[in-house]
Design a protein that fits this description.
alpha/beta, about 230 residues, 14 strands, about 25% strand, 2 domains, Arc Repressor Mutant, subunit A, Rossmann fold, five-stranded parallel sheet
Length: about 230
Amino acid sequence: MVDLQKAHILLVEDEKNVGSTLVERLQKEGFEVSWATSQEEAKARLIEKKPDLSVVDIGLPDGSGFQLASFIRETNPNTALIFLTAHGDPEDRIRGLELGAEDYIVKPFHLKEFMLRVQNALRRARALHGGVGSGEVKIGKAEINFQKFEVSGVGKKHFLTHKECSVLKYLLERRGRVVSRDEILNEVWGEEEFPSSRTIDNFIVRFRRLVEIDPENPEIIRSVRGVGYQLYE
């Protein structure tokens, strides 16, 4: 469980003025902070200590923050993720959310807003470890370990992002009920980070590949036309 007052945050930001300001503010609020200015440096920091939250700038000097996010997802699946960007491109936002980002913050931003988004991301990460589905759950052909964000029983192990775990857990807690896309979006993302329903549909496609015997003819996660989805098992 994430303790907000003791959380470790990895900040990946190559703009020195922005980085130093954010580090100072985060430390002032009681967080432990590691600061990296490139992908290479960030990977070294990730090896040193697994952060509870990674705040990653998309435009890094040695590649895209999206590339780094994929590395974080593979090596530190428990780590929550926030993207920083100088551009509000909708396609970039969708890509970030589909990589499992808790949030996507466009520069320039107010420091108070930044801190609220960090705290909200950490609270959602903490909530993910409690309640229904906090341990191992069998869904179809797959074993889901919500503590390790890990899927087994389907060949090689797969890892889920925080957001994928949250969506799957939400469906589990409402097993047998029809759940609308809007309900999932409101409960899992909230109004501040509202993505499109396409994000939910893409998550469901991935889930079906993991749990269904025949993903093209799903029996476990069923579509309800014009409404949403139902976890049937």
